[in-house]
Amino acid sequence: MLKVEIAATGNELIKGQIADANSPWIAEQLRIIGANASRIHTVGDEADALGDLLREIASRAHLALITGGLGSTPDDVTLRAVADCSGRRLVSNGEANRSGSVSPRTAPKQALVPEKSTLLPNPLGTAPGFCLSLNGCLFVFLPGVPREMKQMVTDSVLPLIRDQFADRLRPVLTQRLNVFGLTESGISQRLEEFPRLYPTIELGFRFVFPRIHLSLSADQAPTSPEELDRSKRWVLKKLGKNVVSAAEETMPEVLGYLLRENGGSISLAESCTGGLISRRITGVAGSSDYFPLSAVTYSNRTKKELLGVGESTLQQHGAVHEKTAEEMAEGMRRLAESTYALSTTGIAGPGGGTPDKPVGTVCIGLATPEGTESRRVHWDSGDRRANQSFFAECAMDLLRRRLLG
Amino acid sequence: MLKVEIAATGNELIKGQIADANSPWIAEQLRIIGANASRIHTVGDEADALGDLLREIASRAHLALITGGLGSTPDDVTLRAVADCSGRRLVSNGEANRSGSVSPRTAPKQALVPEKSTLLPNPLGTAPGFCLSLNGCLFVFLPGVPREMKQMVTDSVLPLIRDQFADRLRPVLTQRLNVFGLTESGISQRLEEFPRLYPTIELGFRFVFPRIHLSLSADQAPTSPEELDRSKRWVLKKLGKNVVSAAEETMPEVLGYLLRENGGSISLAESCTGGLISRRITGVAGSSDYFPLSAVTYSNRTKKELLGVGESTLQQHGAVHEKTAEEMAEGMRRLAESTYALSTTGIAGPGGGTPDKPVGTVCIGLATPEGTESRRVHWDSGDRRANQSFFAECAMDLLRRRLLG
Prior knowledge:
The structure is a homodimer. By secondary structure, chain A is an alpha/beta fold.
């Protein structure tokens, strides 16, 4: 089995000022082509510490990807560490490879690379990457800037690994689904028979609040893509409308497709979600085609004056009630002249709860050409913003299920 | 110097499905009390791999914090690895420490700990942590659930480290500021004299889009807290109103304080920011006190009908223009009966740009009791959501500066 390790260098990483997001991304890309990382490391910008790490990795692994420390500031010590622990001289980019992408004149230090290394062009930045072999382990050195690093991995590094380690890669087939409306144990129950029916396929759950990402993955050898597709169709049938997307789209993206398909438009009257549903729906490019208007009506006065919620409704039921949610949605649908309108009114917390309407209570209204419906949901995570996220997803989900018919 | 290493275990981490956010958090906590991590590691849920790592760390470090793998599923292999590489038996929690927080009856596997280890109570979960010494290195094992882990670090682990390593900690004094409205090089220029005036204090920048976090830190030994405060006051004077907060509050939190202070309220007419400003302002608990209404008016029709933007304004200048932004803000201020109203209209991208109004153009309006003003800003990151974030921050910043007088 191919032994792979990944490392990131940087004082801001080792001090905990930022989390290393490069290494998980690299690990995922490698896994897709069939190489599993066994270790991920972080060290600071110290040539000695990095040198120790490189020697250690060289004694264990066949392949290593290292990000960071290739810039032109004194903090950037990767070149020095590589030179020290490989005994190679640093030479100019041009000397190493006449086809290199960087001119030594414009970026003198960045253009240095260890002699006899292979250059990896950096189309989005100035510091090139390079790879070389130490003690039989292939080391790939890449800049730490995520945008540059990702482009280089996709363009140069993955093809190189595919080429050099072809017979030792075990590509994994993967399918992902985005689920909302069932708990993890609810999903497990419905999919109870899966392991017996598809023993070579691994079923994975990942709670990406407030959704659940479900993955089906299998080694390419014993499992065919057709078999994986069959297992996916089986899962889709078992989970029904709880599958928001069988292709990794988000809830607002799916709503966008459905609204375009059916030629409808959506407007919003938000209270406790405070603009979050608007934000999510307008986060999709082109959403202006089906999204004319939304309002956040926090006060009773604006609920009445702008949306036409009845004084008697508010007096009889209060702001957090199905009836109020329905009138908010109806009022917004009239105001925006949209096909559909969604509303939310509830208590996101931390304050504002009462015994019969505790924090975490939300009423959702949906006005449609055929009439108006509403739901009351209760869920409290103890965190205002998480509650708002959950309420928003519930509201969008109500419309999604409606659009599915 | 105290040598510290941190490790996280988990298949989801080594596969790159999620990033390890525990280790950076721990690194930061340790740094505050005066211990700097030199390595951060990630391994999968394999007892052998973890055992190798533990032995390796024991040979190098004085202190190690390990998260994950303490649960009750077969994936959770930390106990096995510790038993293997320490040669210690696993005993029940009760046997190890009668004051332990978990009853072996309710959580049999989770209640196992290595013999002669010190239990660390887990007030928010079922799996207790523990610590023990291997080859002279103090290992602290903690659950991977962030909420549980953080509570335990704060309650038990930091006091324990302070106690055991008192004479080897080098506590760091830190102050943080949240800056908006200057580039990194603009800040550097204004603070050019800082290193000469305060040579023992380190000035750090961290770009937390769209803000810049500025930190002042110094070893406690040569620098007094008073000296650090003096350097902070100097920085505050140099950066003036560009300092959003001298105490790590966010822009909407600062707006909240300023609005309460001055007894004013704010309403919003958003177009290209799509509800993001509402979302951010209502993300602050208690914001309903000063936030009556906002609307997202994507279409020209709703800009005219709801906000009263003139047909002639739209015809003459188009939707993206200072004049349109001003009329949107004025219309919303009337509608909401608020003290202030902010508006945004622009092109977040990726489509919709024109030669004279390219993607990244935004016009911001601010209506106040004293009149209306507007700004045009251009900034394009190539990413729709990042552009929206930047536009939102610019709009809130315009109000913030106004409220500061």
